[in-house]
Amino acid sequence: MWRWRRTHLGTEADRATFRTLHTASLAAPALREGLTNASAERSLRHLRALLGTPAAALTDTSGVLAWDGLGHHHTAETAQVVADLPEGAPTRITEAHCKDKGCAVRQLVIAPLVVEEVLVGTLVVGAPLATGGLVRAANEVAAWVSGQLELASLDDSRTALMEAEVRALRAQISPHFIYNSLGAIASFVRTDPDRARELLLEFADFTRYSFRSHGDYTTLSEELRSVERYLLLEQARFGDRLKVTLRIAPEVLPVAVPFLCIQPLVENAVRHGLEASADKEDGVGHLSITARDLDQECVIEVEDDGAGEDPERVRRALAGDTSMDSVGLGNVDARLRNAYGDDYGLVVETAPGAGTKVIVRVPKFAPGVQL
Amino acid sequence: MSTDVVPGFVAVVLVTVATLAIGTWGLRFSRTTSDFFVASRSVRPGLNASAIGGEYLSAASFLGVAGLVLTFGADMLWYPVGWTAGYLVLLVLVAAPLRRSGAYTLPDFAEARLGSRGVRAMCSVLVVAIGWLYLLPQFQGAGLTLRAAIGAPAWVGPLVVAAVVLINVGSGGMRSITFVQAFQYWLKLTALLLPACVLLAVWAGDGAPDPTIGAGAGADFWSLPLGEGGGQGLYVTYSLIVATFLGTMGLPHVVVRFYTNPDGRAARRTTLVVLALLGLFYLLPPVYGALGRIYAADLAAAGSDTLVLELPRLMVDGPLGEVLTGLVTAGAFAAFLSTSSGLSIAVAGVLSQDVTGRRYGARRLSGVSAFRAGAVLAVVVPAFVSIAAPDVGVARTVGLAFAVAASTFCPLLLLGIWWRGLTAAGAVAGLLVGGLGSGLAVGWTLVSSDTTGWVAVLLGQPAAWSVPAALAAMVLVSRATRGQVPAHAGRFMVRLHTPEAVQLER
């Protein structure tokens, strides 16, 4: 029995490896948040366990973020050494100046943490004597920490990219739309001045909403109001060629949705619906927007009876292929997944000649989502 | 089939068919862009308040109160008073901040406020428990009604209501439309009001006899607010007041309706209108109770829950009596259907999120099938229990549901909204103390038939001790773990208490 268990759990060396990997996995989540006081505080305990030394510290380039173990009085001294560290310096060993004869920290190993070839901080290891083995271990741990921090900066840049895309989307009101709307309004100025004035006000409100700079989320009611303004302006231009049906359950109007998550879908639908309308007998493009209440979530559908699309092309657009003409689709999909998780991506039902239906599901409440 | 059952039968069939038809086809409002500004179509406080009233006024209100007043006298008026005043507490302390929190259900609020999945899971369990406890008397009431109206066995009512609710939920009528629920309120009000007017006219025609000078035991105490209970009566009354005043805010199907309001201000207005609507409605059941003292005194001993259904026939002869009977039967049946569908949907939502929607091995149900599986579970369990244990008073079981809600969600909401220091550990401790305490009382009451003696009284009306105990546990444990106050607590408080019109970084 004893023998069996021994082999079952691996040899002593295997188990040491497992322990090391486990300790590393404990330190990883904190480091993935980047190098801050809080993350250093939480990960350092595990890093010191990996190294097996009396003291360890994490610093950024200006000072000590966290110190774990013995010898807290070396903090100021370490900060001084770190601040003087030149860019591209290798791992170095310094003597710890200490009047306390019993202090276990006599020497400090200072290993640089480098992210994308820039020095972001150091891992400091305090020990009675910096042996070759300890220096090697410190180097390896520092390299691993650097790797985790690199991943953290990757996460950051992904979020930043997402924000940049929303900004781009805001600025993406097509010049054609502005030009055509103003043209359509101009055509009413003499024949129907009242209508021209109303349309101009709608246009002003529409642009104000689209260029709004604050907040990632808005209510469905605000978003739909903007969609209605957009449709009003398009109808002024296309007249009877565009027929729109709205069917909105009033219960879901207060739901918080990502800013500009419906608008791009409607723009696509109008374009596709009208492209095909010329081939049809009555020459009319139909568009329908529905919002339904499904207890804990709300379902919004945007449907047109236009030319439809090859599902493969839609798949590529959703995967973020920017060469496709449905630019908004991938962006909306990514933002929905980012806010609510992968279960809440866009669903597109389409086939050539069969129209297109885009379905958005939004939970009524999600942690972190607020107006 | 004798001619007696015809009006009841017609009423039940009509209400059932109407409910199914509305649930299946829905009220399809089709609008075109000529009808502008969706936002201006958001649900008005008046409509939303009617819908809350429609969902809230259950079998206990429609049948139970009149029966209790008939049997036990004026001290039972605390039930309708408390059920109404619960909204006053909701209005003053909870409605607007809860709406501003953005939470849809009570577990949502717990998660948003405390940032803890553990507290959320506990709240989900409690929502299901309270929902089931509240569904139980609805099904029992349905059994009573069908027995009184068409002489069906007691198990037919629960079965019919369960089936109608399931078909409704399964066929896509997921969340009952606000408009339909609002209609239910006015239907229930009419179904009580019209017969009451006729009966009062009959009573006046008889020379307006005084109901307090009736026959039967305890006649002297009938009109006194504390009855004949002495110390126990006083305790029961206070406990009832605590449970009903504080329990309303913890009812799962009421809270979700507040989400429909566009902002906190609208939430407050809605609550105010609810107060008025409930105040109007609750004037009527005591009228039936008092008239019952004169015209149906023998019902007081033998199952007084059917008083409302029997009284019109006892007081008015001929076709008019039959029509009035049909009307109250329809109202009662509408009460079961609307309340139980609202509750089933609230319970099914939680179940589908946390139980049936989970991954089991490699299988995982999709959203709609998970919801349907949750609905089956939500309806079948209480329906089965109501058939197995059919003889607990309707209003009493509802009182217990209120007691559980008051002992668990009330401390969580009050402290969560008004006290920064609440921690996840404190919330868990309070929910455990309140939930276990009141749960024990519920179990004991459902099993035991003893209703005298202090143990029975303390366990039959637990709110007066379980609510303070839960509050104390929450405060003490939160103080002990004060280091764990969520980092976003301050910011969240600002969001809860600042009107939406104020511009600030939330």
Compact summary:
Helix content of chain A is 49%, strand content 21%.
CA-based shape of chain B:
globular
Structural class of chain B: mainly alpha
Estimate what percentage of residues of chain A fall within beta strands.
15-25%
Q: Uncertain spans of chain A, ≥5 residues at pLDDT below 50? A: none
Main location (chain B): membrane
Subcellular location (chain B): Cell membrane
Protein name (chain B): Cation acetate symporter
GO molecular function (chain B): acetate transmembrane transporter activity; symporter activity
What does this protein structure show overall?
The complex is a heterodimer of chains A (371) and B (506). Chain A is built from eleven helices and twelve strands. Chain A is of the alpha+beta class. Chain A folds into two domains: 156 residues, 2-Layer Sandwich (Beta-Lactamase); 193 residues, 2-Layer Sandwich (Heat Shock Protein 90). In chain A, β9 and β10 form a beta hairpin. In chain A, α2 runs antiparallel to α3 and α6 packs across α8. Chain B is mainly α and 506 residues long. Chain B is 71% helix and 1% strand. Chain B is built from 20 helices and three strands. In chain B, α1 runs parallel beside α14. Chains A and B meet through α8 and β7 of A and β1, α5 and α14 of B. β7 of chain A pairs antiparallel with β1 of chain B.
Please render the helix and strand layout as text.
The complex is a heterodimer of chains A (371) and B (506).
Chain A: H1 2-9, H2 12-31, H3 37-51, E1 55-60, E2 64-69, H4 75-83, E3 92-95, E4 107-115, E5 118-127, H5 132-170, H6 175-191, H7 193-210, E6 217-219, H8 220-238, E7 242-248, E8 256-258, H9 263-277, E9 285-294, E10 297-304, H10 311-318, H11 327-340, E11 347-350, E12 356-363
Parallel strand pairs in A: 7-9
Antiparallel strand pairs in A: 1-2, 1-5, 3-4, 4-5, 6-8, 9-10, 10-12, 11-12
Chain B: H1 6-25, E1 31-32, H2 45-56, H3 59-72, H4 78-100, H5 106-114, H6 117-150, H7 156-170, H8 178-205, H9 230-247, H10 252-255, H11 264-281, H12 284-295, H13 307-315, H14 318-356, E2 359-360, E3 363-364, H15 367-388, H16 394-418, H17 424-447, H18 454-460, H19 463-480, H20 489-497
Antiparallel strand pairs in B: 2-3
